[in-house]
Predict the 3D structure of the following.
Amino acid sequence: MSASADDIQAVIAELKKTVSVAGGILYHLGLADYMGHCSARIPGTDRIVIKPRHSASVHGMGTVESERMIIIDMDGKPVEGRDGPPAEIFIHTEIYRARPDIGGIVHTHQMMTTAFGVVGRPILPILATESHDAKRPFPIYSDPDLVNSPARGKALAQALGDHATVHIQNHGVVFTGPTVEEATLSAIHIERLALLNYFSLQLGTPNVIPTEKIDEMLKGNRVGYGVRFAYYKSLLDTGALSARAVVSAPPIAQFLNLTK
Ligand SMILES: [Zn+2]
């Protein structure tokens, strides 16, 4: 095997680990269960690492080891791995095809973000750290059915447009980013933002952070996505990850069934 082939195998092994960790983080935060899937584009190729379809032996997103991750091509055809791809593989293939800038995708049915999509209400940028993820209202793809055909995947990618996040109304959400780490952090940040929107709307009219201020804050000395992802991974590694890492109000978390 040539050095470059070794290199790509090392990249793939690392991506499989990261996709597995991303699933574990989302699962233990209560943002996903056996449904939902994360994926990563293998850089410079038309191949995708993705969690396999759930089955009698592939369970919740928190239990899929990196060795069980599969590789598919851009048509959703399996290239490597013993398990089949998720039915909604076309969320991933069609978004990667339409958006070369996207390297990671997360699909969940997380409750509070989904609720805002159900009522067609924008999640407002009202929290300093998370607001850059919600500078513009997320587009809504209105077909609640599984995105289980290339046509549906294309329509979803079209609805996403140049955004990073899209609601699948009455179904869930798709988060994207340059990497699967960033897409995962978006899922966490936006759920937290949706919760704060919900709380604030009970109390009064939320004060929205102006776009210029969000841009200004982004230029500041901020902790990067890699560091944030490493934080959640460390909680996962020590078994300390819980819904409290996302929300600070356990009764609300319980009410939302966010506690595992
Ligand atoms: Zn789904």
